[in-house]
Amino acid sequence: MATFDPQFIWFGLVSGSLIALGALGLTLIFGILDFINIAYGEYMAFGAFVAFGLNTQANMPMVVAGIGGVLGAGVLAIALDKVVFEKFRNRSAIVLLVVSIGLSFILRNSIRIIWGSGTKRFDIPIEQAPTYFGISILPDQVAIIILSFGVLALTFVLLRKTDIGIAMRAASDDTDLAQIRGVNTERLVLYVWLVGGLIAGIAGVMLGIDSVLRPTMGFLTLIPIFAAVILGGIGDPVGAVVGGYAIGLLQELSVVVIPSEYKPLIGLLVLVVGLLTRPDGLFGEATR
Amino acid sequence: MMAYSQLLVTVLIIAIIYSLLAIGMNMHWGDTGLLNFAHAGFFAVGAYTSTVLTTPAATGLLGDRIVGLELPIVIGLVAATIVAALFGILIALPSLRLEGDYLAMVTLSAAEMIRLIITNEAWLTAGTQGIKDIPRPLAGAFPLSLGGFQMGYNLFYLGLTIAILIASYALFKRLSESPFGRVLHAIREDEDVPRALGKRTPVFKLKSFGLGAGIAGLAGALWAHFFFAINPTMFLPSLTFSVWAAVIIGGAGSYVGAIVGTSFIVGIRQLTRFLPNDIPLGSELPFLRLILIGAALIVVLYYRPQGLLGDKERIQAGQAMEGE
Amino acid sequence: MSTDPILAVENLRKSFGGLTAVDGASFDVEKGTIVGLIGPNGAGKSTTFNLITGFYEADEGSVRFRGEEIIDLSPEERSKEGMVRTFQITRELTGMKVSQNMRLGGQDHDGEKVIHAVAGTAKDREAEIGERAEELLRELELWDLRDEYAGNLSGGQRKLLELGRALMAEPDILLLDEPMAGVNPSLTDDIIEMIHELSAQGITFLIVEHDVDMIMNISDKVIGMHQGQVLTSGPPAVVQNDDELLEAYFGGEV
Ligand SMILES: Nc1ncnc2c1ncn2[C@@H]1O[C@H](COP(=O)(O)OP(=O)(O)OP(=O)(O)O)[C@@H](O)[C@H]1O
Ligand SMILES: [Mg+2]
């Protein structure tokens, strides 16, 4: 246990940004396809490892490698839809969920075979953290927060202002309805995988920058991501983002009251309390 | 030759213990339609409960374990079953009224929390150091000479686990075919219907969860008492997923299927151990195995949704509806 | 007609987002009577059923069953009290055999407890339930299909199975949501006869049905709903001539 330190709030914002991104991607996919993609954590890890390969093995600068990783995750998401999920389109949500478990097995262990099971780091300079107002702030962390704000803003512009985004939201409310209105659902599905995959890639690369890379890195962040998705109301993008920051902050601040090893417990706690009190999510009227 | 038969006995014991896990999972998923992703957690709770109850406290390099009761192993096995069942009920409680996806997320998280607690509470579990020298039941009596035939300990333990498997199979099959099981099946098909007919479905779901988690706990205890030592890394989510794969490949709803599916999975995992390490990718075999299990799961779901031994007609009757 | 309402619905209200599906509906169902609930598509009939039986949570209003408020009870508790329903879109358990669907309706069955299931006790009750199921299945002409999966039945057969399953629960009041939809016409007369018989035995009925002639025929009282409100209520002869309801049914669209 620790005494309160404003530093925790900063840490909370950083991890909140990462969780919010992951939760946004997962909830978007759920909105259209109606199932929980357990392999989503692996999409994140895959993006990070592709960036790692480009960064340390092909010696590209981090920015380029990062973009490569993000694109890699987007391509992966679409490819897996074409090769696997598309074949299960009219099966139940539960079957799809179990299929995604199989995929997560395959992906995680492929990452282990390609890049090894050990802990990896991006080849980026370790910088001194300047201190403002008693909070030490790493440039990487500033980049993470700004980037995630940018991505979140961009996604919401996409959802509200573009035709495809508006169709996505309509389909998220009712897949059949969108079909009646002449929206091509299959194309919509493709877009949502692309957007969801790119977001996973961004979250994964940033997670790797923030700490280290491990084949299990994505899988292990699934718990706070689940918590954020449920807290925000499953399928609700705004809720997921708010939920993500809430979980991030709560996790980091929790060390004031519980030992820091139990930080991940907060996710479960919020999950349970959230389910008991607000099964429809933060903002009431849920999509289900 | 001797070594191979020894190994075979060990592999069989592993398959039987995993079959117990699959039987519990089949009650959850096959009978009741509940998405339980906490099975590795129940397995761990059983293993640690029995271990802590039957071993002495011990000092360790990283910390001392101050709890250890040295009780008889029988008590450990019974307690493991009960404590795991209670954990199952506790975990299911918050999400009973909600749809399946929620249960999946809560249980998956809960299993990781169980592992986190086992890793961190060294005073109780020895943490990452693991616990060693776990006693084996009746170990002193072996090897036993039976008129010229030497019966080794592993063979005895194989007999013991077979007996437990048969008893468990009989028990769960009986439950599944009883009026109790009928309500579980109704919950699996459409929970509103039994509710409209006055069945307290949350209570039935809790019972299902408790029973399946209990047998997973028993399996955990049997594991610990055979392999002498346990540590937190034995209870990863991939274990849960392997059990899922076993149930689905075997055919959800069929208890024989659960055992057959488990044999298939354990077969893949254990038999590939005999491949020499110098073949291409030889050192990556553990990962290839898991990839193979993941792929088998998807292929079965696509080509044979009812699994190897599941009821095809039942699945089709269900799909006839979905199409409307 | 007695004036002892077994079911009293008062000022029920339920909205979905901006749409008010049930808008202050009030009516009584007298004990032992057959009451018809009619109204055009989307009038709020099924939603009213869901509110009475507890499958939807009411925004407002009260439901009294035998004089007691039940609005806070769960669907299973209401069912245990003797209020059993069928669903408009049949909810037969597709992956269970017809006979198992029926037996599920049996009440006070100790065999549904784990202890009895393991010990194999409570066999007598199971046998009783089985006999009753056979009786009903024969009456509904489903006996030959007893070992078929319910998912393989035709639409009409599903309706009958659902009716039979509800009867297995020995209800005091039975809420039927379009029980005749899709049922073979040769069987509808038998069902009507069955309803009369059961009614004579004291079971109360609340029936939603689109076949207005049929409803007028069998009901002691008819309630007409439109846009979530009760427009009219009274003996069939009176309701039959209610202009407002006729307007709601046939006005505008035709
Ligand atoms: N779960 C729900 N969510 C949203 N809207 C609903 C829901 N259930 C019913 N409605 C709406 O409430 C209104 C009343 O529906 P309801 O099913 O009660 O009508 P009904 O009288 O039974 O019609 P029908 O004769 O077609 O069965 C309709 O506009 C319907 O679309
Ligand atoms: Mg209706």
Q: What's the structural blueprint in terms of helices and strands?
A:
The complex is a heterotrimer of chains A (288), B (324) and C (254).
Chain A: H1 6-33, H2 40-57, H3 62-83, H4 93-115, E1 131-132, E2 135-136, H5 139-161, H6 163-173, H7 175-180, H8 185-210, H9 217-232, H10 237-253, H11 265-277
Antiparallel strand pairs in A: 1-2
Chain B: H1 2-31, H2 39-54, E1 56-58, E2 65-69, H3 73-92, H4 100-120, H5 122-125, E3 144-146, E4 149-151, H6 153-177, H7 179-189, H8 192-196, H9 201-227, H10 237-250, H11 255-271, H12 285-303, H13 312-322
Antiparallel strand pairs in B: 1-2, 3-4
Chain C: E1 5-16, E2 19-30, E3 34-38, H1 45-52, E4 60-65, E5 68-69, H2 75-80, E6 83-85, H3 98-104, H4 114-119, H5 123-139, H6 155-168, E7 173-177, H7 185-200, E8 204-208, H8 212-218, E9 221-226, E10 229-234, H9 236-240, H10 243-250
Parallel strand pairs in C: 3-8, 3-9, 6-7, 7-8
Antiparallel strand pairs in C: 1-2, 1-4, 4-5, 9-10
Helix pairs in contact in C: 3-6, 5-6
Magnesium ion (MG) is lined by residues 45-46, 88 of chain C.
Overview of this structure, please?
The complex is a heterotrimer of chains A (288), B (324) and C (254). Chain A has helices spanning 6-33, 40-57, 62-83, 93-115, 139-161, 163-173, 175-180, 185-210, 217-232, 237-253, 265-277; strands at residues 131-132, 135-136. By secondary structure, chain A is mainly α. Chain A has one domain. Chain A has a two-stranded antiparallel sheet. The mean pLDDT of chain A is 87. Chain B has a single domain (2-316), classed as ABC transporter involved in vitamin B12 uptake, BtuC. In chain B, the strands form two sheets. Chain B has a two-stranded antiparallel ribbon. The model of chain B has no long low-confidence stretch (mean pLDDT 89). Chain C is globular and about 60 Å long. In chain C, helix 3 packs parallel to helix 6. Chain C is of the alpha/beta class. Chains in contact: A-B, B-C. Chains A and B meet through helix 4, helix 9 and helix 11 of A and helix 4, helix 10 and helix 12 of B. The complex binds adenosine-5'-triphosphate (ATP) and magnesium ion. Adenosine-5'-triphosphate binds next to strand 2 and helix 1 of chain C.
